[in-house]
Write a structure and sequence with these properties.
With 135 residues, this protein is mostly beta strands. Helices cover 0% and strands 66% of the residues. Strands 1-2-4-5-6-7-8-9 form an 8-stranded antiparallel barrel. A hairpin with a 2-residue loop joins strand 5 (60-72) and strand 6. The model has no long low-confidence stretch (mean pLDDT 95).
């Protein structure tokens, strides 16, 4: 199968952030997050863990791992995405992600791919673009 691109949305379900306040300079935090995906990626109740660095009170960078169990374009299984992104002064989040090698199971075994999303402040659903290949 050649490379395919699919679109999905996710709705944030929960965000539990804990931080370590630095006396000065950047601040490290971690967040446990749950998202529900619909569309080309169907996955309810994902499990995601982020490490965040606040460079200022409102800007910074993050990386994370998210486990999705459900389906990609109708093929069922589980896979992990590695995420890397930034958050800006105005609250905009930009993220790119790729499938963690060897993480896919079930009918998604052999899945590779990458994607991106952008979250604007106040958005209830986030559009995701995912380009992938299935072995």
């Amino acid at each position: 199968m050649g490379s395919r691109t699919t679109s999905a949305t996710f709705t944030p379900v929960s965000w539990d952030e804990k931080g370590v306040r630095a006396t000065e300079g950047p601040r490290l935090a971690r967040a446990s997050v749950v998202n529900d995906y619909a569309g080309g990626i169907e996955a309810g109740g994902s499990a995601c863990e982020y490490a965040l660095v606040y460079v200022t009170e409102k800007t910074g960078v993050f990386s994370g791992m998210e486990v999705l169990t459900g389906a990609v374009d109708g093929r069922e299984g589980t896979f992990v995405v590695r995420q890397s992104g930034t958050f800006d002064e105005d609250g905009t989040i930009r993220c790119t992600f790729d499938v963690a090698p060897g993480s896919a199971t079930g009918a998604l075994t052999g899945l590779t791919g990458d994607g991106s999303y952008e979250v604007r402040p106040g958005a209830e659903k986030v559009a995701v673009t995912f380009t992938y290949t299935l072995a």
